[in-house]
């Protein structure tokens, strides 16, 4: 599971050959969640609301990069790191 970004103790991952809808995984301390790339809604799991707000802000800023990584990882297995939230 490649780590595509990390900021403020938050880790963002994507899996190869993952199920739809396009999404990414968030880990923060002992909390985990899956986030839909298009709606930015939580698919599964739970993270603290403050963390979710930061993740959504980051994902909004990097929507195109997230989708590009999703499709690239599903077809070629390649991905690019995405800049952290600053």
Mean pLDDT: 95
What is the spatial order of strands in the main beta sheet?
1-2-3-4-5
Share of β-strand residues = 25-35%
Helix and strand sequence: EEEEEHH
Distance between the termini: 24 Å
Task: Tell how many strands the DSSP assignment holds.
Answer: 5
Main β-sheet description: 5 strands, antiparallel
The best one-word shape is globular
Share in helix:
25-40%
Radius of gyration: 12 Å
Low-confidence stretches: none
Instruction: Give the structural class.
Output: alpha+beta
Structural domain tally: 1
Count of alpha and pi helical runs? 2
Strands, helices and their partners?
Layout: E1 3-7, E2 10-13, E3 23-28, E4 31-36, E5 42-46, H1 49-61, H2 63-75
Antiparallel strand pairs: 1-2, 2-3, 3-4, 4-5
Could you walk me through the main structural features you see in this protein, from its secondary elements to its overall organization?
With 86 residues, the protein is α+β, with helices and mostly antiparallel strands. The chain has one domain. 30% of the residues lie in helices and 30% in strands. The protein is built from two helices and five strands; from the N terminus they run βββββαα. It has helices at residues 49-61, 63-75; strands at 3-7, 10-13, 23-28, 31-36, 42-46. Strands 1-2-3-4-5 form a five-stranded antiparallel beta sheet, with no helix packed on it.
